[in-house]
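Troubleshooting: if your tokenizer reports a length mismatch, compare your output against this known-good record of 280 residues.
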Amino acid sequence: MNLKSSIAKLCRKTGMSRQNFYKGSKERVRREVGGDLIEELVRAERMVQPRLGGKKLHRLLTPELEKAGVRIGRDRFFGVLGERGLLLEPLPKAPRTTNSRHSLPVFRNLLAEMEVDAPNQAWVSDITYIRTDEGFLYLSLITDDWSRKIVGYHAGDTLETEGCLRALEQAVKELVDGMFPLHHSDRGCQYCSHLYTGRLREHGLGISMTEELHCYENAKAERVNGILKQEYFLGGCFRTKQQAIKAVDQAVWLYNTRRPHQALKYETPAIVHEKLKKAV
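Known-good structure output:
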């Protein structure tokens, strides 16, 4: 539902004319209509981003609300969400594991020593699983450390290195000439494999790995996993693997292009990545 049709529907519901809505001549009714409009827009956005929180919704919907003459601060916005049962319930944390028991070569945590101030200076990588009735899928992700944009991903049937390599090749294709990001990951056998580290070297990418506190030292990659699972329901169980793969594509697209990020001053990762990449 677009903004104009939402306003028309709400005005019919309250018996208020459009003129009175825009002029604000009936403040009490206008406040109610404003709350109704907020609910309409929030429910519409939650159809595609079911776990989008209040701060991000306020930032995302403010321009549309202001076009309709509704100006509302964040506290009152949260009040409307609470009154209408639109606040999110917290989800339980999912267990996180890293398999680093192997005899493959490992590397120092160079990212901890680096000051990142632009996109494509450092990438963080991780693997997570997705449940389906046909068995597990394994999602390999590469995220830009600065912009938080997912620059490469692949969902496949096994935990073998091939999935990580496909995500890497996707990420490398988007690089501008002369850019050689530091690649950071945990010490999982896929990332430590001779095949994967060899491919990193072929592309001229530096290699960095966690050393002791694996989750903490790869927190941004872990955070992206959590967002995709909790906010875009990749943590659920899909009927088929094909259905899950489509859900992954949609989740990554929404995360990159539609989800405001607090650390990015509520811009989306895709906008920040492209804006800063052009400025480098």
